[in-house]
Amino acid sequence: VPVPVQWPAALEPDMLACGPHATGGQIAALTASGLGALIPSSTAAGHAAGEAISFALEGLLELGMARSVTWGNSSFLVLTASGQVATCPASDARAGKTLCSPVLAPPVPGHGRFDVAAPAAAAVMEVGGGHGLRAIVAGNGHISLHDLSSASMGEEAAPTWREVGAVRLPQGSSDGGSEVVAVTATASSLLATTAAGQAYHWDLINGLPLGPLAAPSLDAPAAGPRRRSWQSACVLPSGKIMRLASSWQRGQGGASALRPELLL
Question: Which residues are 20's β-sheet partners?
Answer without folding.
Answer: none
